[in-house]
Amino acid sequence: MKMRPFGRLLPTDVALARLLSAAPPVDRHERIPVEEAVGRRSSLRVVAPHAVPPFRRASWDGYAVAAAATRGATAARPVRLRLVGEVYAESPTPSTVAPGCAVAIATGGPLPPGTDGVVIFEEVDVADGTLVVSKPVRPGDRVSEAGDDFARGFHLAERDDLLTPPRLGAIAAAGIDSVDVWSRPRVAILPNGNELRRPGARLSPGAIHESNNTSLASLALALGAEVTTHDPVPDDERWIEAVVRRAIRDVDLLLVTGGSSVGEHDYLPAIFPRLGRLLFHGIAVRPGKPTLAVRAGRTLVIGMPGHPTSCLANGLWLVAPVLARMAHAGGVPWADQPVVLTEPYEVPTSSLATVVPLEVRGGRARPTFRSSASLTSLIPANAYVLLPPHRAALRKGDVVTARLLPAPFADVPVASVGRATRRRNAI
Fold first, then answer.
1. pTM (2 decimals)?
2. What is the structure's pLDDT at 226?
3. Domains, the chain, with CATH or none
């Protein structure tokens, strides 16, 4: 079996910086209904075409009155006002209320001219069509002025803002039924290896079910991408290159898994330089050293390790920030939290950085990593720590800064999230 040595291994921060510089945010945008826009990023500023509310309205159920008419009202000497009608939220602008009169009004009802305050039902008595007020009402009591929420021309969203339920509710309240959003990054995932079969396929001797498609697709979908997965491609250089060249035509990011190392059947190191500008081959990190990347026209192509744990570990600290940048998010929603280790962890003696998956519970953490081929070692992990090169072994009781992964990337306890410090684009 022939082996080819790696070239210069890049530090983790340099590798990530090169990918981010080669992964500009997508420039496509589309207009979609406000009801479907939650979680998307606005591609244009959204400006309110009118004020909300557009008129003075009652903010409580009660009676609209002229505040001046209630001046000096007490329980011993109440003010009596004649009830002359009712106003509901859907009522047109009512007629002027004459001095000494009041109208019943529902929450949201337009305040009639001649009134400037609302007294609630519980604070008055009604007898024979007369409203008995025993305490004064101040001008503006329980009244929302026109534009009280926001004025005409108010910026409801800026370019790249996350469209959250409250923001979309405000946009809808302004009468806007659709918004311009950035299109989702298009991602394709292509595994290669003679032994790989799609899940559900019958296994022949020596074959295994392919899992990187699923784990990376899940990661990309959770970060807002559109994802296409390809069937595994056999270890054939021309076949792999042909499929890669077809795949990069319509995507922003292509993830190729397997065949990225230095073995006889690792063809990506030979194929990638033919696609465009090679960014690197090899990162000084464990697991995940055999990673390479190329900018092929408008498409970024990353060759990922075939081992499932190495592949997904690289997905978390390396691919996720790239996808976040493409999606105009600015950074991944990871968060940092100091934790105390409950178990030791033997760090390989090398010049490589080390990704250590952690299960964090209540400020305490245990390492879960077993091997690069053991994907189940990541199932309980809801955080990781990226240790620098030449780091000594971790001991029980050591404090490290864990990078917490929110749902749906992992199961993060609520208590842990509450103590976390938000970070963006850190590794």
1. 0.85
2. 97
3. 12-28+183-326 (3.40.980.10), 29-52+149-182 (3.90.105.10), 57-144 (2.170.190.11), 335-422 (2.40.340.10)
